[in-house]
Amino acid sequence: MGAPTASSLASGSTTTLSKRPEDKEADPEVQQGRMDTIAEGTEVDDVFGAQGGEKTVNYRSMGWIWTTIILCKLQFGLGVLTIPSAFHTLGLAPGLVILVVIAVLTGWTSYEIGVFKLNHPQVYSLADCGELMFGKIGGIVFSVATWLFMVFVGGSGLLSLTTSLNAMSMHATCTAVFVVVSAAVVLPFALLPKLSDIKWVSWVALVSILSAVLLVTIAIPVGGRPALAPPEGPWSADFRAVGNPSFAQAMNAISNLLFSYAGVPVYLPIASEMRNPRDFRKSVIASQTFMTSLYIAIGCVVYYYAGQYVASPALGTAGVMIKRIAYGIAFPGLSFSSIIFTHLSGKFIFVRVLRGSYHLNHYTKTHWLVWFACVFGCLLFSYIIASAIPVFGGLVGLIGALFGTSMSLHAEAFMWLYDLRPKFKVREDRTRLMWLGIAGNVVILLIATFLMVGGMYGSILGIRDDYAASGGRPWSCADNSGSV
User: Fold this and answer.
1) Is the pLDDT of residue 32 over 90?
2) Could you tell me the pTM of the whole model?
3) Which of 39, 46, 92, 218 is the most exposed, having the fewest neighbouring CB atoms within 10 Å of its CB?
């Protein structure tokens, strides 16, 4: 098989092959796989192998519109529920500025993911990027960070589902039981083999979570009194234009805002399953603009009317009845957060184990056994996380600080600098724009490092304080949906 041409790689990371005479002497199973792969006109993807041949699994089947919906749902879910409380900690003015800065930074790094995929069609995840840039050690470090990020977010998704079940049922049973129920809801959907198989779930999920958040956003000013406010007598929202938090409190709040955009590390696998990876940049611009506008509108309205009485997660701010209705409406959306991250964490291992083999893109027994083992193992790990750290805000902040910064900011800045190297070697190509880009990406690296270290410190202290205040413990039966 000849090497793909530069033009074929640039046009969508595939090449087209024709049959070879020597394949007729191959082993029967391998023969069938090869004939599928090299059938006349069959495209061979640099990650998934044969696409569109007879009996092959066509992973690359996502259009840019469905990709945009999935990107929106990756962002709009767990993170938006903590934005109003982050605004209260920081103050509205600093909170808005920091939110917009994070939106710009993650928008740029998301765009760079699409560019890097076109330049290097063989990469499937940030782990592949790490190995490409820094060798085997870099690949190992990025692999561990990427996988841990996905299973931690999957765990926080399970935790949000337990909060929802507790709210709807008025804590009908032990929260530890609800974690098992949540995992049972997630598993069958996460096991669907292709992103295109669950794209309809992403649409239902986006509509559900958006409807629930808008319900609470409208109910708070209409109701006139947040649920956590004193039930009788005068009350004050303690609205703060500028807050006065401690360093740890501020960093934990910023980590929560960063988590609102922390879907970035899994953008590359999603781009890899698009029919035309060039359209990924369109999806990034559309989703980033839409989500940032919603974050600002919802965060400002909820915080303005609730102030210090905003709940975290925010769906509990408007009272018992609204909370139960909102969580019921939001349940599909909250489920999808765990479904998509369990699916992607399982596929991350699945692709690395079977990459280059016949079983990766054919529904063989080995294919299904490995796929089920990968998904179930990742969900089990997420279950352990959700049970061991039953503090929603603290867990979200920890994920945003530890993995959100490194995988959403550090990695992409390094990717931009890596692709710059060939041009930088030519003195005539060193323009002012290039130097500006270098300076900008170095600044991103410095900001990301500060946020990671400071955010981890604040999040760990926040988890400790929440544990002490609530008496929470691993595998707890306590109600985690709040007191309202």
Assistant:
1) no
2) 0.82
3) 218
